Amino acid sequence: MKSERVSEQTTKRLSIYLRCLNELAAAGQVSVSSEACAKRFGLNSAQIRKDLANFGEFGHRGVGYNVIGLRDHLIRILGIDRQHAVGIIGAGRLGTALADYYRVLDSNFTVVALFDADTKKIGKKVGDIEIFDIKNFAVDAKHVKIEVAVIAVPAGEAQAVIELVESAGIKAVMNFAPIRLRVSPGIKLKSVDMTTTLESLSYFLANNSQ
Amino acid sequence: MKSERVSEQTTKRLSIYLRCLNELAAAGQVSVSSEACAKRFGLNSAQIRKDLANFGEFGHRGVGYNVIGLRDHLIRILGIDRQHAVGIIGAGRLGTALADYYRVLDSNFTVVALFDADTKKIGKKVGDIEIFDIKNFAVDAKHVKIEVAVIAVPAGEAQAVIELVESAGIKAVMNFAPIRLRVSPGIKLKSVDMTTTLESLSYFLANNSQ
DNA sequence: AACTGTGAAGGGCTTCACAGCG
DNA sequence: CGCTGTGAAGCCCTTCACAGTT
Question: Can you give the pTM of this predicted structure?
Answer without folding.
Answer: 0.94
